[in-house]
Batch of 3 targets.
Target 1
Amino acid sequence: MVFGSTPRNNLSPQQLLGLANAYLESANRVDDGDIALVLCHDTESSLSQAKKGGKRNKEQSVLDGVATAYIGLGKVLDSRGRSSEAQASYEAAKKMGKSVQDFDRLAQSFDSKNNAHPPQGTMGSNSNVNTVNIPPVVAVTKRKVNRSIALIPPLIFAENVRPHTTFKKLPESDERLINTSQLACCLTLLKIAHSLDDTLEPIARDWLLTVENDPDEQERLKLLKTDIIRAYMRDELKDAKAVAEIVCLSPALDKAAFQDLLHLFYDRVAQSDLLNFHQLDGLANLLQGADPGFLEADDLIKILAFLSKRIQDTDKQSPRHIYQLILAASRVLDAMADTKFEGLNREKLHEPLSSYLNSMKKVSDPYLIYQVAYAYQALQCVPDDESLLQATLRRTGKVIKGVSGLVSAVKGLNLSGFIEGLSDIQKGLAGATEVVQLVVSVFDDVSSLTESGKGFLDCLKEGFSFKRKCAWYTALRGADALIREGEFVSFKKLVCEAPCRLDPAFQWGVCQRLAEIATNPIWDTRTRRNAITFLGEIYRNDEDWGHQASVKEWILNILIQLSSHSEIALQWKAGIQSPDDERFPLVGKLKEFLSSNQKVFLLSGDSGAGKSTFNRHLECDLWESFKKTSGTIPLHINLPAIDKPEQDMIAKQLRKDDFTESEIRELKLHRKFISIRDGYDENQQTHNLYVTNFPNQPGEWNTQMIISHRNENLGVDYRDRFRPGDRNSQSDSSLFQEAVITSFSQDQIQDY
């Protein structure tokens, strides 16, 4: 039997109101929580349209019914544990003149027959719907919410996605490629051609079927890959953009090319006297996404030995140095667990590293503490005869060797059994023989908790435990395997049902992974937005996720990093000594500077405050303005990647961007620049770059300068290093402006 389709837009306001009540009735009756939330969403959509129609037609009875139904929707959402959404429904009703008390009185006026059955005419019959002035009230059934499972809107991660294969446009034969991400997508599609499945987008499937019959195009793409790798190897100074591009390409490499790239990253990090953050980050990301079959035990040992030594030598340096090194070491340890590595030398590697991690108990930086705890959990898995994940999987009846087995068998994984296995570890039932007692106790010193900020570290004492293997690490490794394969439906189920989901360490790890999904170009726009929405759910829904202040702060930090994808405006204050309550939107301050005659703008802030992200976002905005006006040219300069930036800095950056000498001379003589200079302190820079580069003088570059710097490295007389001056170094404070990026106030956090 085939029924005709009636678009919702064709329904009258009365019909839309009846439809909303039908959805609401069903949402209240159905047992499946996910289905109920979909029905609630449909209810809200129908009510919104009915409200618009009622206002347009001035039908007060419809508007009264909509207001009442909004309260009914709130009641149903409340019964499903969705208090924040319920409150929004109550507020909508309140704006229309209805209160919860009005609803309760109305509910009492209906007998049980009205409450037990859907009303006549609400599914499409016009005869009865038009006579309904006030819709039947839904009797909300009280039910006990299953607090062991978090409820996430079903539209978040509703389907799986093939990684590295999502791109809006794929090239025709011999067509110029847009960027390295598009090339990586093409090469990955060719690599998986033998295993086509339903998760592949139609555009990718069609492209693949065409290119499979075009050997010349396949060869062209492979040559492009080779050329990019060779160019990267020749480039001595690699900025963050170049590192990100080559890491994006790594999943499409064969084993030999991957190992060459791994050795290059290692050599550049190991041979540098100063810690190269971009190369170290590239090394960590390369290991994170590596095929376990591409990794050799000797390479992993060599990299871990170097990192372990560098970590211990860096003890007196900034938390950022230590964090980046421990993050990279965690990736190596994860890779060792993935490949079921055994026999890590206890005396030379295991004990020194575990002792160092033990010594970190007095650290006050929560981000560093999380990474230390994660590294320790990874370290416990490396020397075992049977990995922690394998012990979990043993309960499912599917013995899979190592974490790498989960990657290859993820589609056949009994996820419910896996989650049940996590419960055993959570309860300490995995077996005493599996607990490696490397450290007697770490967070047993109450005074250190007080010194580090008791409110947060009290949570860490429970969650970031060093005493035993924890379920949260195993759960996160399972999540990694699911993400790697694009199994987002199972990933959501694991996160929502893991028995350790209220553990702050687990939540930190989940948020970290959601942030990586949101910023990774291998995923399509919908998937990346789902990741951001998921972060919002964890932030807002205290009933399901607990009121973890540290996790909320972590999420806000992530949102700052994602500010180029959102409408969150960074805040500033006038200087380091200015009161924290004197905050203003940063974008407005920059616009004021750019329209003035001032020459230098110093942008400072704590590590991770969002300076580099803001600079990139600013560059994009300025380029959009340039396209419309052909005025001032924005030029982003990564200072650590420039050799001797105190001399001829703009020309050096343009040469890196492949401009010819004649083009550079032309730009110098005839164009005005806004030079955005990022990372002043990352290469121990001490020169006044304005004074040493002689800008805004006859025959020199015409430019305004924006310079970013970390607060902790500024010093007392820092302004002398940035104020404009002439060749005799006479500074002019009227040409200088500064701002400090600040964290959000409590009121702003609450408003958000």
Target 2
Amino acid sequence: MMQLINRQSARHFFTWQLLFLSSFLTVFFLFPSPSYAQNNPKTSQVDSLPIIPQPGIPVDSIIARLEKGHTALNDINNRTRRGFNTWQIDDNLPEVQSYIKTIRTNLALYSKVHDMKNMLMFQVLLSDIQKQLKDWRGGLSDYENQLSDMNGQLIGLAKDSIFVVPADS
């Protein structure tokens, strides 16, 4: 009986030992040590955006320039998001063109005999059209000046050494 107990305990012992050994080897090979990954030398990968040292520029100056750039970009973004009010020109320009076409047609049809009443009416109409076009031109000129200012701000930001990114090689 003692032999049977020894045999069963030996079998039980070897079963547990085999199970422990297989578990240990599985964990060891499937989950390598984190220190292995840390001890490997890094491959020589080149950073796509290398840091360009700029000696002599104080941190507060860099921060001020970054804030100035941020403010300029926000201002440009806000002004372009609102857009430019050109819908009146877009809506009314075809009407103005039709008036001019009508005047041209009347002058061509009655080129030999001009009615003074029609001529005065055409003069008043053309004067109103000219005033309207002058107002539209002034508004468009203001928009052009605003766009030119924004372009100047963007060019100034692009030339600032803080925002310059080295060219890709």
Target 3
Amino acid sequence: TASATGTLPSTAAIDFTKKPLLTGLFRNEPNVNRLEDLYGSTRGKIQHISIVSNCNLDVLKAFVATGWAPVFRSRRSGKGHLSAIMKYDDADQQIQIGNPLSARAKRQRSRMGRTLTYSEFEKEWTTGSGNTCVLITPKRLHDVEIHAALKKYLPEEQVARVQVRSR
């Protein structure tokens, strides 16, 4: 995907072991039916959270390229649970998702995450999260900062549709 200022890298990855705030969310995974519910249910536990809506796969990939691990609610076997994007690879058309706590247990490779095709991921993500993701960061991200990061990789009209609610 091209923009006036740049393009998405063909691959990018997040090292979950360097994201302690993200690990904190998964350590005591809140029981929520919608990602928007994380805003209230994590108050007092997670200081800075951004609920980002009207996303698509390119927006999520831009977050990974920026170094932010988008968290989403997936729905498998009828049960919803939180996952984060670890890596994407355009050449293979695959995305790797997982739980940061499992990523720390490197000796158990099967727990490192799941690899899905882009179409498999989009189906799972849109069913569980409705084109919404969550960013957990060390400082509060305002919509201006999130939009500026996205503009490095995506066209202005695509970035303009993205909505942000932060604390």
